[in-house]
Amino acid sequence: MTANLNDSLVSTLDVDENVLFTNCRIFRDGKILKDDLWVKGGKIIDGQLWFYANQEKATRVVDCKGHILAPGFIDIQLNGGFGVDFSIPEKDLDTAIKTVAEGVLAHGVTAFCPTIITSGSDTYSALVPQHTPREGGRHGAAVLGLHLEGPFINPAKNGCHPVEKVKTFDLGPPEQSPEDAEERLKTIVSKGATAADAIQSTVVGAVTSVYPEDHLDKVAIVTMAPEIPGAPDAIRYFVEHGIRVSVGHSRSDLKTSAAAVEAGASLVTHMFNAMSAFHHRDPGIVGLIADPVVTQSDRKLYYGVIVDGFHTHPTALRMAFATYAEGCVLVTDSMAGMGLPAGEHRLGSLRVHISEERKATLADKPETLAGSVATMAESVKNFADIVGVENALTSATLRPAEALGIDDHKGSLRAGCDADFVLLNDQLEVQATYIAGQVCWALDSHAAALFYSPIKGQGE
Predict the structure, then answer these.
(1) Are the C-beta atoms of residues 383 and 9 closer than 8 Å to each other?
(2) What is the three-class DSSP state of 243?
(3) Active site residue 282
């Protein structure tokens, strides 16, 4: 039973109080160490500096009862949950996001990117303008920019995305011949224009015919296939608009994938899934994590991994992590069925079946996985069994923050960061979730009250 965190309970903590969280094992700088955490004004502070500068003790001391205190989890690929699908246009997006934002608190998530899979331009026109990134709190996890997963993907690697809604950049299909590409180029080059200008103009036109250009500031990530003709220009366009580009749903070879990274792509969408398999003669997108375009440059590449027990074999995950641990980002890729019982649910316009074993597949194509229904807390536990607790926590906190460029204030427990954190027991089960230093969810009312009980003689 979870606690109902009403005003009478949470009002016992003033946001301007100087609060000391003690008797905890803090996950900081990649290690779990016994230490204290100081919070004031919703931010983590340096307790020693505060004391010496102000000669003030904590106004409240919270006894964490020996639990692990880790940064809040950040999910950069979340399609929905609790019966809500972000890709269904008839739904009110704001209400849908609020439902999920509240629900994921129980699973340690303090921030997430709502993800919309391949859809028609009418869907993007209806949904993207509705989106408003917002801070987290008792109402729910922080809502970051949107992750638009498609429609510029390879139809041969669409996964569960509706293939009829897949788009190109109006320069031809991914596998066209050089002769066809040359003929296509001739048709778009107008008198007095260079080929480069014509390609750029065509690509931008294709992008803005699908995504509402005036609302691109609400988008954090775009997933696209780098082998689609015109992809480098599209990548540069997105990057210029402050959007992270992730390569995925692709049959790209390594050379084309590396060119995408050189153009500005900085992410890989759900590594190993919906992409060409690793081959010793051409590793494809998978090979990026060991390619000089990343390893011998100052570029940083991040790659998402789904660890629900179905999408990726543990040995494949170990290989990727051993090769390039510093880029590993844990994602759920969860859809509307997360938090719901076994049965049939929707992902966009598709029917999805969830088995008793919590495996999600297309209802009319049971061999095709349809996203995941694992929570982030479950994913962290699963990944900890594969790479260790500290590595799993890093992949769910700091790495996604780095991937989005928000690690200056989220994803760690350094002084100056937002006081968003989760209390975990030794089994990595969520005991309580905090945002801006306020308890927003607790396992039960006893735990909620406990985490606000001052220690006699220190807290008042």
Answers:
(1) no
(2) coil
(3) no
